[in-house]
């Protein structure tokens, strides 16, 4: 059974005219929360060669991915980055997921709201609003692969808050 982990970036600097949104960094409070939640996730997610991590290339998402991957034991240099997840509609994030090869069993996505919450709700027909560093864990139904994932074809197994 394939499992999808959707993780919203850690709490970041406030919006400012002095810094482009894409370049905003996580703050210490966000880092602390990300570390705590990553430790909780480690009990559920065991990284192996069928695990893939994809992150938005925005600073705050990549910084969050680095924290989680260090704790989970996923090589940071193997994180795939894409701007396609940044400020993306949930269907654009789904397109990234749909391109994942069938050899992957555990897919971890680091991104932003509202896209990740909307995607979780679309895939599982749940009502979730992911706060910063929260994780939605979804299992694909009926032995589907990531290329076949679409509306209502996943079950929300858990959220880590």
UniProtKB/TrEMBL annotation:
Gene3D superfamilies registered for this protein in UniProt: Phosphoglycerate mutase-like (3.40.50.1240)
CDD domains with a match to the protein in the record: HP_PGM_like (cd07067)
InterPro entries according to UniProt: His_Pase_superF_clade-1 (IPR013078), His_PPase_superfam (IPR029033)
A UniProt-annotated Pfam family: His_Phos_1
Designated name of the protein: Phosphohistidine phosphatase
